[in-house]
Amino acid sequence: MFQFDMPLDAVSVGLDMLVWLVIGLAAYRYYRKKEVKPRVWKVLLVLVVGQFAFTINRDFAGTLVKFPVLPLGVWIMYGFLSRSEDRWEKYRPFAWLGFSSSFLFMIASLVWIPFYSTVYPASDPTTYIGNVSKASIVSIHPTGRDDRMLDRDGLKEQLPFMKQNEVDSDGWYEEMHNESDGERNKNERFPYVLQNVSSAWGSGGNPVVYVEKDGKGILVTTFREQYYYRCEESILEEGSE
After folding, report:
1. Domain ranges of the chain
2. Alpha-carbon separation of residue 233 from 33, 38, 65, 153, 198 (angstroms)
C-alpha cells in the first residue's frame, strides 16, 4: 500500500511501482529456492496480508509518513498457517517480505518529500496553475461582478513573476468584518474562482484557486495548505465571454 498521504503524482507513482518491482523480484527469488513450490495466488495473498502493520504516524513537511512497528499481517498469517508446521515454513518468508515492504514504501516516501519540494516549490504559483489557455473565472459571491472576465494573456505573462505573500486569515476576516459593519462576509475578499486550469504536470495537485476582487491576488487552497500570491497588474478585465 502507498505509505504517504498526499495526492498521487507521476513520480511518486513511479517510486511506488519501483518498490513493487523490488518486492516482486525478492518474492520470485524466494519462490525459486523452494523445493516444493507453493501456489502463486497464495503467495500473493500472504504478501498482501503481510503488509498489514501497526504504524506510528509522523508529519514531515506537511506529509504524513507511516512508520511500521508491529507486524500484524505476519501474526495473522501465523495464526492461520501454524496449525501445520510445513505450511507456515512454506509461506513464512513471504509474510515477512510483506511486512518488510512497508519499510521500503516508508523510505520511498521520505526520499520523495524533499524531491517534491524541489521540483514543485510552494513559492511558485505555476506549481498549482498550469495551462491557462481555457481558464475562466466564476463569481461565487454577490460582491463579484458578473461583467468581469479573465485576462488569460495577462495571467499567463504574470504567473511566473507573482510573489508569494503571507496568508493573513485573521487580518482579512477583521477587515471584512469592519468593512461590512459587523455583517459577516458582506465584503468578500476573494469573490471569484478560477476554473479550467490544472496544476503542473506530475504534481498530482487538485487545488481550488480564488481570485481577489482587485484582480491582483490569487489564493490557492490545497488539501493541506493555502498559498497567497500577488501580481503587479490585474488579471481581470471588463466585458463578457
Report:
1. 4-119, 125-238
2. 68, 68, 41, 12, 22
